[in-house]
Amino acid sequence: xDRTAEAAYLTAAFVIAQALAAGCVLAERSETNANALxxxxxxxxxxxxxxxxxxxxADRSRYAAICESDRRPCGSSSLDVF
Length: 82
Known about the structure:
Elements (H helix, E strand, L loop, with lengths): L2 H4 L5 H10 L38 H7 L16
């Protein structure tokens, strides 16, 4: 498994390929939840960012400034909001 998958990051190409293989049809794409500040190289992946802060206080202010992962809006009250 590659580093991005281990960190719970799946590329759009991977997800689209899996969906197409399952018989889905891609109608359109959107960058609505894209966050250019998230570089996807945090030691705990997206869990380094709010709400989780998996690294504790290490670089917490840096991750707070990034605010959100591509998959979870900042301010979400639940970790299952994608």
